[in-house]
Amino acid sequence: MIASKESLPSAAGAGDVDHPTRSPDAPQETFVLNLGPQHPAAHGVLRVLMTMDGEWVQRAEPIIGYIHRMHEKMGENRTWAKFLPNTSRIDYLSAMHYTHAFVGAVERGARIEVPERAEYARVITSELNRISSHLVWWGALLLDLGGFTPILYAFDDREKILDLLEGLCGARLTYCYYRFGGLYNDVDDAFLKGTRDFVRHLKPRLRMYRDLVTDNIILRKRLENIGPISADMCRKYGASGPVIRGSGVAYDVRRAEPYSVYPKLDFQIPTYPAGDSMARYLVRMDEMEQSLHIIDQALDLIPAGPYQAAKVPRVLKLPAGDYSFAVEAARGRFMVRVVSDNKEVPYRVKLRTPSFSNLSLFEEASRGMILPDALAMMGSLDLVIPDIDR
Amino acid sequence: MTTFLSLEPIRVLLYLVGICAFVGGNAAYLVLAERKGAGRIQRRPGPNEAGWAGVLQPLADGLKLLAKQVLVPPGSDSLLYRIAPLMVMAPPLMCLVTIPFGDTVVARNLDIGLLFVFAFGSINVMALMLGGWASRNKYSIMSSARVVSQNVAYEIPMLLVVITLLMMTGTMDLQEITAQQSGGFWNWNIIRGIWDFKAGHIGANLLMPVTFVIFFTCMLAETNRAPFDMAEAESELVAGAFTEYGGMGFGVFFMAEYANIVVGCSVATVLFFGGWQSPVGFLSGGLWGVGWFLLKAYALIFTVIWVRWTFPRTQFYNLLNLSWKILIPVSLFTLMLTGVLIKVPQWLHHLR
Amino acid sequence: MSLFTAIRETYTGFKSLLTGMRITGREAMRPVITVQYPRETLPMPARFRGHIKLVLDPETGRPRCTACTLCAKACPSGCIELDGIKREGDKKKSVSRYELDFTKCSLCGSCVEVCPSEAIDFSKDYNVVSLSRDTFAQMDLYAKVEAEAADWARLHPPPAVAEASADASTAAAPAVANPAATGRATP
Q1: What is the per-residue burial (b if ≥16 Cβ within 10 Å, else e) of A35-61?
Q2: Which of A334, B49, B287, C5 is deepest in the core (most CB within 10 A)?
Q3: Distance CA A260, CA A104 (A)
Q4: Looking at chain C, which subunits does it touch, using at least 3 CB pairs closer than 8 Å as the criterion?
Q5: Do C71 and C84 form a contact (C-beta atoms < 8 A)?
């Protein structure tokens, strides 16, 4: 089972590594393992039908649909404003981004000007949400790998974010905070001060996470050179977000299709060329630091003023046409496309979710991997199954 | 009364009861200590509802396990299935017979005490394999095959380290080894290897702390503790080695794991940290000795718990790579170093 | 890899393990952050979104709701049902029945936002429990606000009644009616 000294076939060109590979003349006896919809790994209700050859994965077929809630159909049955709660529930871990995309698409269609204060508040809350989503990803990945402590540290920090957002808009997870033309309520000084304190609090905590986990030799051996994904594979399947940035391509929707006030803010796009799980891990850790930087700048630049556009009709009717809006959600590129035929109810709401594309490369990428490595790679893709099934 | 108690059979019986009580009490309350320790590291209280600060929690867990039905799976090898828990529990009990808890508190001191401890420690592997094999469950067999491979791989550096120590102490008698380390903490083996204060010359093993670290790592791997618990944590996706065991059968495996940890830490205390010797030279006799011994052993057990909750699990091939490619070369190197450091001064002395 | 790099990697690897242990050891010394609910509770922030409630006007002691049904129309999940009647002496309608199907409510805030009379707000209840499903499926918000109104009435007796009770022997009390009490429909 073990002992071959060939290096792992890796598109990223890893050097020689002591990983076991299947010796080609061993007898093939495959069996089917069902990684059922319910399993202790913290991904959600995903079923993966794996054809295994001993410990090696021959074929991993993801079967989705266990949490299909028909959000796109609900978009066709509700008025524009009534769809807002749905947006928070598509990917509940980064709900602000998803509401932003929908609200942005409608604002483009109805040509509503959003006041500056609201835009900055949207950026601050979105980046806080990105940090809280990455903290969940980090804790859950380590839980998969067998480290039971970091998830609790991450959730301690995440509680602070949730408390901030609860003080701001009253909800902890499914915010439904943005409205067409602005926000549900104004950002108050308590929130701004609390956010500054939080940024100051999180910077040393991120350093602690680096010392405790990122530099840890056991974790490095678990993630380095595991699950290589080439930039080509990402392009083929439309992967986005940290998956593609961990394969060396600096694609970020905030720079490629700028929206809101991101053009005024100065931040970097962390990119690592290695393409393995460790690269994706480092991208997300760096993204948390960049988010803190963005929040700092936005807190300095947020102007006083109205938080809602004037004269937004209560029952909105978009002019007929096709409008879309893409955001850089925590998992990748989330795009909303709305088709309107000048009625109160949309004709079509299309949600292009990042986890769907990120999962689709799992089948090709996991061929020939050992099962625990395949699971570690799936953890590094940061899938949220409700995002896939909508 | 004292003459009655000093009768050999009565003494042996009392020690037997004492050891069983010690192992049983440890198994129960180490679980609680682990959960509370894990809680503190994770900044939460741990069990605190059953009794004050959770003291009755092990009783509740024990009652739960006792109340469950012990099912022998049909088609399994029922004799082996029933024997495996007993075989897993017996070695730690046997090992505790020769470990000196105090200057007179030892059940039976053998002059081959160290050999005895390691011989019985190796039976543990066979029992785990039997447990997995007898379950007639594809994943249990795979899991126990891994356990065997892991244990065999880590037996070797452990024994090499012990041989290094034997070369330094010259005896396998655990009481003798403890007696050699009397006088204060600078005489404990972990420091005596670097500089022998009593004899006034350089010690026999300059890499003694490294030797201790290797021994500790091997002890963690032998008892299947995190970060080396791939076999039991396999249950995150497939069954572990003990899935088919329910109720008290599983409880016994669990107890045996903690008993093994206690034995391992006790042996490490005796070999490296002076056993029941006090760190200041006096106050070593009688119950003081027992107190020092328990203090040191529990400090090591606490470190084992601390290590478990800090690190993620190693991958299986990394685990074996660590043993075969790092620990064995380093322990062979320390063995050669010790040999050189002991023999060369003797040759120089003869040449003079 | 060369022997030297192997030794160096082993050394840095081992040091990283010690660093990790130092961090968890330090964290273990810090206080526990768990809030032992239900023995300890946390205060809810002012904007917390519990289930909605009808708001009592502190001036008049009556619910502000005029049964305009804008909230029921704005609700994405269709969980609000209400009726109103026009009482005599009032300019607007007032609510007579208000039921919330809390099992469908998504706490989006559309009803609170759209209400023209500021008659709905979020409550701070987060630990509502019941043995029957109807407590949630047909949450009777009107009964709750009526109970509040009764409390208000007790605390704000009308001035005429106070004068009359000062004059203990006069039986003039029934003639001076409390305007808030007229026309109150029995729930």
Answers
A1: bebebebebbbbbbebebbbbbbbebe
A2: A334
A3: 9
A4: A, B
A5: no
Nearest chain C CA: its distance from B312 CA (Å): 11
Say how far apart CA C147 and CA C9 lie, in whole Å: 72
* Chains B, C: CB pairs < 8 Å: 37
pTM: 0.88
Residue B130 distance to chain A (closest CA, Å): 21
**Residue B1 per-residue DSSP state:** -
Of A2, A142, A212, the CB nearest to B317: A2
> Could you give the CA distance from residue B143 to residue A146 in angstroms, rounded to a whole number?
17
Output the CA–CA distances (angstroms, integers) from residue B89 to A107, B68, B152, B262, in the order listed. Answer: 70, 20, 19, 13
Contact A161, A201 (CB under 8 A): no
**Closest in C21, C23, C34 to B45, CB measured:** C34
What are A3-14's pLDDT values in tens digits? 333 333 333 333
Distance from C-alpha of B260 to C-alpha of B88, rounded to nearest angstrom: 9
Pairwise CA distance, residues A254 & B39, whole Å: 41
User: Does the beta carbon of A204 lie under 8 angstroms from any beta carbon of chain B?
Assistant: no
CA distance A130 to B35: 32
Closest C-alpha among B1, B316, B280, B28 to residue B147: B316
Asked whether A324 and A363 are in contact (CB, 8 A), the reply is no
B-chain residues within 8 Å CB-CB of C24?
Answer: 41, 306, 309-310
Buried b (16+ CB within 10 A) or exposed e, C80-90: bebebeeeeee
Strand, coil or helix: what is A48?
strand
In A241-320, which ranges are E strands?
none
Say if residues B23 and B93 touch (Cβ distance below 8 Å): yes
Which pLDDT value is given to residue A160? 93
Q: What is the pLDDT of residue A8?
A: 34
Q: At C47, which helix (H) or strand (E)?
A: none
Q: What is the pLDDT of residues B278-301, one digit of tens each?
A: 888 777 777 888 999 999 999 999
State yes or no: pLDDT of A232 exceeds 80: yes
Inter-chain CB proximity A185 and C46 less than 8 Å:
no
Residue pLDDT, tens place only, A234-251: 999 999 999 999 999 999
**What pLDDT does A41 receive?**
61
CA torsion, points B176, B180, B184, B187, in degrees to nearest 10? Answer: -140
Specify the pLDDT at position C177: 43
B135 band by pLDDT with thresholds 50, 70 and 90? confident
Q: Please provide the size of chain A in residues.
A: 390
Ranges B106-110, C8-12, C158-162, most confident? C8-12
Q: Which residues contact B232 (CB under 8 A, 6 or more apart)?
A: B143, B224, B240, B241, B242
User: Is the preceding peptide bond at C38 cis, omega within 30 degrees of 0?
Assistant: yes
The rounded distance, in Å, linking the Cα atoms of B185 and B158 is 24
- Asked whether the beta carbons of A50 and B237 are under 8 A apart, the reply is no
> Taking CB atoms and an 8 Å limit, are A211 and C17 in contact across chains?
no
Chains that touch A (3 or more CB pairs under 8 A): B, C
